Predict the 3D structure of the following.
Amino acid sequence: MRLPRITALLAAAALALTACGSSDSGDGEDAAADSTAGFPRTVEHAMGKTEIKTKPKRVVALDASFVDATLILDTPVVGYTDYRSINGKLPEYLGDDATKYGSEAQTVGTLAEPNLEKIAELNPDLIVTAKVRHEKLYDQLSAIAPTIMSETTGATWKDNIRMEAKALGAEDLAEKEITAYEKAAQTVGGAINAKAGNPSISVVRFVDGPTRLYQNASFSGIVLKDAGLKRPKSQDVNGFALEISPERIKDADGDAIFVTEYADEKGLSAKTAAQFKANPLWKPLAAKVHDVPDLTWMTAVGLQGAWAILTDLAKTFGVPAPVKGA
C-alpha cells in the first residue's frame, strides 16, 4: 500500500529538481554524496574501535573541548554537559558557530554525572568525550549511539579534534582549521616579539587551592608555544602547572603577566588573589599584570579558546589582532 505514495514522492522530487534549472543540477546529488562518502568507517580511540555507519549529524559532546571541536567541524551539537566553561547555555566565545550549529543544544546533566536518559532522548548519532571523564559509562553510552573517547583532554586538544574529525568524515576541515590557527599564532607571536623584544610571558591562575603557574603542557602554554613566545624559567618546562605559595611569588614574574581567577562558588579564588596582591612581594609585579578571562585561557581547551587567547595577546601588546579565515 506504500508503493504509490513512495512513487508520488519520487515524482515530486524529480519535478522539483527540474524546476531548479540546469545551473543547480547535481547539487542534491553532491550533497548526498558528501553525506555518505567514506561511510561506514571504523574509528580507533582510547576505548577501542567504533563503527560509524553514516555521517553523524547529531552529536552529544560530554566535554567542553569537544563541544568546541564539533562546532568548528561544522557539525550540530545537540547535547552537552554543564561544567565551568558551560553552564546552562553555550558560552559566547564559541561565536557564530554556536548559533549556526548549536541552536538545538541542550544540557544533559553535569560533566561529573551525565544524564543517560536525556542523552538517549536527543537521539544522537555520535557521542564524544574523554576516557578520563567517562570511562565507566562507555558501555552505557555505546548502547545509545556510537561513542568515541580520547585518552584525556588538555594537552592533547589538537589530536582530539583530529580524532573526532575521523568520526565525522571531516579530516580535511580539521587540518584546515588547525593550520589557520597555527599560522595566526605565528603571526601574532612574531609581531609581539618584534615590537616588545621577545618578552617573557607568565601565566598565573588563582583557584580555590594553591596558586598555579601554567607551563608548556597546559592549554595556554601550548598557545604561547605556538606563538613562539618566551616563558619565564619557572614555566618553561614540559609540565602542566607549578603550584606556589605566597613566599614564591617571584616565580610568577615575567615581562608580561597574564592573570586569571576561577569563579568558584565559595569565593576562595578571589580570597587567595586578594592575599597575593596585598603581599609586598607582588608589588613589583603589579605593573606588568594583565587580567584575562579564566573561561577562555583555562577551561575552553579548544580552537575557539585559542583564538581568544591570541586576540588578548595582540590587544595587550598593541599588534594587529588575528582574523579568522584570513
User: Anything to note?
Assistant: Residues 171-196 form the longest helix (26 residues).
